[in-house]
């Protein structure tokens, strides 16, 4: 008979085998008749931690969407985009969730020599919707007409949930036929009843 010598690798394999058998025995205990005992042992650990649980506030259901009775009226305010600062005057009519109206766009400083000082002297229309606390608007200042730059049209698309009965703050994107895309517009308007 050959005598076998056991090396370090053989001993490691034997210990690993013993560990697996021990783990299998524990699993057999859990799946056997003592799962409640194991659960009872680990249940106190569920409450352990370094900080107490922080209660979370639940907003009332009515706070989910602000109630805006009607946005009909005259709105004025300021905005800005890459072409420069601007001023708005809107006359809005709301029927149900639909908005329609007229819009006037003016540069904040018509004499500063910027592109906006010419291209932002426009009259146009606006349409939109307001529902569940969210507002979407399209302001359309078409080319043509008696504007200082009749070849240039501007379309702005705004969306926001930052609305109240007398204030609207929004970001907008859009296009101009003379200056290209608008990607960074922002405005705030307030209603004068």
> What share of residues are in beta strands?
35-45%
- Give me the CATH fold name of the largest domain: Lipocalin
Q: Count of helical segments?
A: 3
- Report the structural category: alpha+beta
Strand order of the largest sheet: 1-2-3-4-5-6-8-9
Radius of gyration: 34 Å
- Work out the count of structural domains: 2
Identify the overall geometry. Answer: globular
Largest sheet: 8 strands, antiparallel, barrel
SSE ordering? HHEEEHEEEEEE
CATH class of the largest domain: Mainly Beta
What is the assigned CATH homologous superfamily of the largest domain?
Quinohemoprotein amine dehydrogenase alpha subunit, domain 2
Approximately how much helix is present in the residues?
10-25%
Strands, count: 9
Task: Tell me which CATH architecture of the largest domain applies here.
Answer: Beta Barrel
Mean pLDDT: 74
Layout of helices and strands:
Layout: H1 8-31, H2 35-46, E1 73-81, E2 84-95, E3 98-107, H3 115-119, E4 122-131, E5 134-141, E6 154-160, E7 163-164, E8 167-176, E9 180-192
Antiparallel strand pairs: 1-2, 1-9, 2-3, 3-4, 4-5, 5-6, 6-8, 7-8, 8-9
Descriptive account of the structure:
By secondary structure, the chain is α+β, with helices and mostly antiparallel strands. The protein folds into two domains: 8-46, no CATH class; 73-192, Quinohemoprotein amine dehydrogenase alpha subunit, domain 2 (Lipocalin, Beta Barrel), CATH 2.40.128.120. Helices cover 21% and strands 42% of the residues. An eight-stranded antiparallel barrel has the order 1-2-3-4-5-6-8-9. It is globular, with a radius of gyration of 34 Å. The chain starts with 7 loop residues before the first helix and ends with a strand.
